[in-house]
Write a structure and sequence with these properties.
The model has no long low-confidence stretch (mean pLDDT 94). The chain starts with a helix and ends with a helix. The protein contains four helices and no strands. It is mostly helical.
Length: 76
């Protein structure tokens, strides 16, 4: 399933509308779903990309501590 991608896209849309609480919620949901996909297939590059995007989105919402985690997800 690609629910992690849909949640990341929803987060981006909310971010462009400056609805930071909705963006944060969508990005967090994307990360949870991507992590689920990665437990099923640790080589799922698309899940890593979505997770990295969602972590960057959270950083743009003010959660700067997610930047190293985003870098790690993109490197993986």
């Amino acid at each position: 399933e690609i629910l992690h991608a849909a949640a990341a896209l929803l987060g981006l849309i909310a971010l462009t509308q400056q609805d930071y609480p909705a963006a944060q919620q969508a990005f967090q949901q994307s990360i949870l779903q991507a992590d689920t996909m990665l437990t099923l297939n640790p080589a799922n590059v698309f899940a890593f990309d979505c997770k990295g995007l969602a972590l960057c989105g959270l950083a743009l919402c003010g959660e700067q501590a997610n930047i190293p985690l985003a870098i790690e997800a993109y490197r993986a």
